[in-house]
């Protein structure tokens, strides 16, 4: 059953990946007009593969409420642009100092630090332009922009990144590492899962159910990432591994051990599944995403 669930999600994800590649290329054609190294770096950062799990969550959460893919696409594009920007900046020497991303040289290695910084800035600002210009009702556009800003900003992903940097060489307990990762990894995932509720003007209860699901999906994603980082290598992961251990950062594996982290991942799945049960729609795909993330290999 688990293998079938993973196969279903993998097939749906592959379809979304192809759709997103086309949509991103079309977007860059509209918003870039030169052959500068900056434009090249922007496209290098955004079009070099990636799981596209966040756009999948946007489009599938919207589909729960009957929102057409075309109407959900601006939010799907926007969150992926922000995710790609965050990876570019996360890899910089001042941050994680990584040489490899998605099996290829990181943006600052392929180009240079200044160009990589500007490429990240371009992706971030373009994300908000995409939402601002979306053909949606004004209140929905404003609500999406506000939610995205909260998820990506100083009370969301950026706060998590700042806490992650400050955690080098520090001893964090489980509550602290969970809070950090809920911001760094979980905030954009929560936006992705609740974008559909915003687009549909869904009830507060429905919005909260998706948010609760998303928080535990984000937690699951980070736990499995820590497990893969512990077991994997750069060739299979497509990025540098073991850097958190070298930097002395606390992870779910270092705090709980491999067995304890695996148990925490299974518990996150159960809680996320329970959150979806209150929704009066078919959530089977979102249920399957949990098992896909739990059993992913890269």
How would you describe this structure to a colleague?
With 298 residues, the chain is an all-alpha fold. It has 15 helices and two strands. Strands 1-2 form a two-stranded antiparallel ribbon. Strand 1 and strand 2 (104-105) form a beta hairpin. Helix 2 (37-46) crosses helix 6, helix 8 (157-166) crosses helix 9 (174-184) and helix 14 (252-276) runs antiparallel to helix 15. The radius of gyration is 18 Å and the shape is globular.
Please specify the SSE layout and strand pairing.
Elements: H1 2-31, H2 37-46, H3 53-63, H4 69-90, E1 100-101, E2 104-105, H5 107-110, H6 113-132, H7 138-152, H8 157-166, H9 174-184, H10 186-199, H11 204-231, H12 234-237, H13 243-247, H14 252-276, H15 284-294
Helix pairs in contact: 1-15, 2-6, 3-4, 3-10, 4-6, 4-10, 7-10, 8-9, 10-11, 11-14, 14-15
Summarize the structure.
74% of the residues lie in helices and 1% in strands. It is an all-alpha fold and 298 residues long.
Can you write the helix and strand succession as a string?
HHHHEEHHHHHHHHHHH
Radius of gyration, in Å, reads 18 Å
Mean pLDDT over all positions: 89
End-to-end separation: 21 Å
Q: Which labels suit this protein?
A:
298 residues; mainly alpha; two-stranded antiparallel sheet; 2 strands; 74% helix
